[in-house]
């Protein structure tokens, strides 16, 4: 779109029976960015992505892709999609499978074959081009599927849980390819519940939980906002200093001591370390002044920038995040 | 707004159809079925016939002769065909004779009534009573013996009796008005063969569509396909691609049949059979067109239904269950084949060749037997074309929704709702 938006989702909803899978979700993906749709399993990510590919139609709301194209036939030549449920024709030869997908997306037979060949080379699968798909390992098949989604050089690449089931080496290959796509000016939208993957690569995120949008924005800004509202890691010079500081926290006006949680910045075993949460509206500098005023000598005073995982847990709720990590589909 | 681009390559349905065709023709199964299909079909007709033509030459039978005169004459006639016939005393009980059959001391026993040769029923019971050739021979010998004895009793000379009993050469020829009618049996065989091939081909390829839809669902290729092409293109491409394989196979079979017919003299000669008198009914180009047309329409009709069924289910086992009632629709015409072949111009034949479920299998046969006028043919074709269009439309709607559904099979009410989407 001329306004630099690759995807514009406006108020989409989708029900399956009496289960609301997606509930009035809106977001915009700027052209040329890597955009992560994050959320626990069953949050509605896949449903949203499938609606963007016209596999299912939203009950309400609209989706525009690229220059105002509707999802479906019109957009198909410009959009590549890696579905969550993956499958290839097991009996087809690898190169033919790729060429077939290319032709389905509108390439000529010759061009599809040429590009299929260069993709296999890029992904280190050249020597397998004459093998049947069923002869490949699961990871290799996944790379072929990945190439199948990209063979027609789409301007918009939509990947549903692209990292699930990939080993660390192939995950790196996939990340490199995603970065290449961005470098070539294309837009990549993907969904994942693996926050580490998202954190490594995303520029923009949108967190969805229970079918509703929870948070959207540029990742650095999201993090900065979380940090401003957030936590401070402290290191004291001595146990006496820590005791003096404790009095500051007692009245909870400036900050409260955080119960130790896995993934926290400080070592919970260390008696001289502490992580505190700023009271609302309190600046980290006010806390520093308060501590120094109380005579607590500090070795460390650090505003903690939370990891995406922590932000996710905080915003989605600990319970749901755990469900997400267990990666079981909750029954609607 | 950007304009929708012109595709550089082929339309999606064509790409899909080509894949279905190439992937199938490449398999060894295609070659095997193409070559072995006709062989098996011919074998299924010829082998039982050959087996039946083997007259039992070593049958052992007992004869209970209450007439006192038919028995001895019959024994000598049976001895001439190597049957061991033994006259047993008339007081021998049926229980005793049945016991002998059970112990395999005899194959069966013949009871000749006291009135013979002037009446009464001659009854044979035996384990070889199912052998059509043997029974026809035994019946002919009994009849000949009784007729001879009647003649002798009336004072005719043996020579006069022989002259009266000389065989009559009766030859039925099949024609519906054109000159040079062919052998009735040959016309029937060709009609049956066409019916059978159509039935097999339609079932084979329509079920192939079903299986391929279910497989795409179970191995989840359908997700990647549906993102790239419309469900309707997917279904159309699949049906056309599989149908092209069927058409190719039938064409090859037809070519084989034509070659076989042309050189039937030398081929039958190999088996020591005289080919003369086997005038084959004339197969005109129009007949071949009719057969191919009905194959295509019948296949498209059933393949649409099967594609919808495939989209409704989630596993091959489930598909087997659901397709059973549809398979019945195809079996019914095969069961009814005699109603058409024995009276191709009758009302039942007329009705069966108008119903779209049975017309693809039965109409070509009726046409070849000359039972249908051009008007009948056109009416049947018109109904079949309209039904096929409706079936394809309904199937496309069910397919579109069903293809992405996993788990529970839809109820009839849900199906009706899918049609409204």
Describe the fold and architecture:
The complex is a heterodimer of chains A (332) and B (421). Chain A is an alpha/beta fold and 332 residues long. Chain A has eleven helices and 13 strands. The C terminus of chain A is likely disordered. The longest helix of chain B is centred in the middle third of the chain and has 35 residues. Chain B contains 17 helices and six strands. In chain B, the strands form two sheets. In chain B, strands 2-1-3-4 form a four-stranded mixed sheet, with helices on both faces. In chain B, strands 5-6 form a two-stranded antiparallel sheet. The mean pLDDT of chain B is 83. In chain B, strand 5 and strand 6 form a beta hairpin. Chain B has 421 residues and is mainly α. The radius of gyration of chain B is 30 Å and the shape is elongated. In chain B, 32% of the residues are buried.
User: What percent of the residues of chain A sit in helical stretches (DSSP H or I)?
Assistant: 25-40%
Strands of chain A, total number: 13
Helix tally of chain A equals: 11
Q: Measure the end-to-end span of chain B.
A: 28 Å
Number of domains of chain B: 2
Give the CATH H-level superfamily of the largest domain in chain A: P-loop containing nucleotide triphosphate hydrolases
Please give the domain count of chain A.
2
User: From the helix content, strand content and strand pairing of chain A, which structural class follows?
Assistant: alpha/beta
Which architecture name of the largest domain in chain A does CATH use? Answer: 3-Layer(aba) Sandwich
- The oligomerization state is heterodimer
Q: Give the rounded overall mean pLDDT of chain B.
A: 83
């Amino acid at each position: 779109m001329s306004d630099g938006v690759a995807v514009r989702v406006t108020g989409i909803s989708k029900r399956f029976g009496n289960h609301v899978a997606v509930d009035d979700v809106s977001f915009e993906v700027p052209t040329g960015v890597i955009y992560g749709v994050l959320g626990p399993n069953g949050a509605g990510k896949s449903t949203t992505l499938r609606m963007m590919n016209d596999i299912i139609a939203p009950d309400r709301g609209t989706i525009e892709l690229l220059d105002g194209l509707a999802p479906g036939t019109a957009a198909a030549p410009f959009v590549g999609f890696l579905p969550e449920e993956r499958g290839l024709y097991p009996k087809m030869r690898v190169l033919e499978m790729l060429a077939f997908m290319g032709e389905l997306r509108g390439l000529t037979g010759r061009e599809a074959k040429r590009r299929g060949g260069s993709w296999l080379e890029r992904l280190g699968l050249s020597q397998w081009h004459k093998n049947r798909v069923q002869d490949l390992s699961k990871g290799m098949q996944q790379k072929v599927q990945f190439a199948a989604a990209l063979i027609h050089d789409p301007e918009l690449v939509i990947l549903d849980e692209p990292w699930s089931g990939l080993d660390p080496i192939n995950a790196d290959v996939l990340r490199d390819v995603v970065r290449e796509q961005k470098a070539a000016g294309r837009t990549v939208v993907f969904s994942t519940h693996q926050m580490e993957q998202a954190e490594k690569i995303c520029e923009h995120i949108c967190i969805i939980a229970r079918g509703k949008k929870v948070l959207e924005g540029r990742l650095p800004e999201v993090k900065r906002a979380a940090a401003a509202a957030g936590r401070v890691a402290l290191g004291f010079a001595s146990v006496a200093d820590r005791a003096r500081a404790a009095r500051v926290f007692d009245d909870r006006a400036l900050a409260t001591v955080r119960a130790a949680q896995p993934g926290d910045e400080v070592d919970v075993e260390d008696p001289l370390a502490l992580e505190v949460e700023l009271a609302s509206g309190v600046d980290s500098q006010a806390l520093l002044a308060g501590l120094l005023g109380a005579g607590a000598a500090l070795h460390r005073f650090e505003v903690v920038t939370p990891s995406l995982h922590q932000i996710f847990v905080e915003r989605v709720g600990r319970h749901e995040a755990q469900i997400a990590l267990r990666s079981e589909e909750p029954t609607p | 707004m950007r304009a929708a681009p012109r595709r550089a390559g082929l339309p999606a349905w064509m790409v899909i159809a080509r894949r279905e065709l190439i992937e199938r023709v490449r398999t060894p199964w295609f070659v095997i079925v193409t070559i072995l299909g006709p062989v098996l079909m011919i074998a299924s007709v010829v082998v039982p016939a050959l087996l039946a033509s083997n007259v039992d030459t070593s049958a052992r039978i007992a004869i209970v002769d209450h007439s006192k005169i038919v028995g001895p004459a019959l024994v000598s006639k049976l001895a001439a065909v190597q049957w061991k016939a033994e006259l047993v005393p008339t007081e021998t009980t049926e229980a005793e004779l049945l016991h002998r059959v059970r112990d395999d001391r005899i194959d069966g026993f013949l009871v000749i009534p006291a009135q013979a040769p002037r009446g009464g029923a001659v009854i044979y019971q035996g384990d070889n009573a199912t052998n059509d050739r043997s029974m026809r021979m035994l019946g002919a010998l009994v009849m000949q013996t009784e007729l001879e004895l009647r003649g002798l009793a009336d004072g005719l000379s043996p020579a006069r009796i022989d002259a009266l009993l000389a065989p009559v050469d009766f030859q039925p020829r099949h024609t519906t008005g054109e000159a040079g009618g062919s052998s009735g049996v040959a016309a029937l065989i060709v009609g049956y063969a066409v019916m059978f091939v159509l039935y097999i081909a339609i079932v084979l390829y329509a079920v192939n569509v079903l299986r391929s839809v279910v497989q795409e669902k179970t191995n989840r290729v359908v997700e990647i396909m549906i993102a790239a092409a419309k469900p309707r293109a997917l279904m159309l491409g699949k049906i056309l691609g599989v149908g092209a394989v069927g058409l190719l196979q039938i064409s090859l079979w037809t070519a084989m049949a034509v070659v076989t017919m042309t050189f039937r003299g030398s081929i039958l000669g190999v088996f020591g059979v005289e080919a003369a008198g086997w005038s084959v009914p004339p197969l005109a180009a129009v007949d071949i067109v009719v057969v191919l047309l009905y194959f295509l329409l019948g296949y498209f009709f059933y393949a649409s239904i099967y594609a919808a069924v495939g989209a409704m289910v989630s596993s091959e086992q489930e598909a087997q269950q659901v397709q059973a009632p549809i398979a019945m629709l195809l079996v019914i015409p095969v069961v009814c084949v005699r109603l058409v072949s024995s009276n191709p111009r009758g009302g039942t034949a007329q009705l069966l060749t108008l119903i779209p479920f049975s017309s693809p299998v039965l109409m070509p046969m009726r046409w070849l037997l000359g039972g249908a006028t051009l008007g009948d043919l056109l009416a049947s074709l018109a109904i079949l074309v309209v039904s096929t269009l409706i079936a394809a439309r309904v199937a496309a709607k069910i397919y579109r929704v069903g293809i992405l559904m996993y788990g529970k099979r839809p109820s009839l009410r849900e199906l009706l709702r899918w049609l409204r989407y």
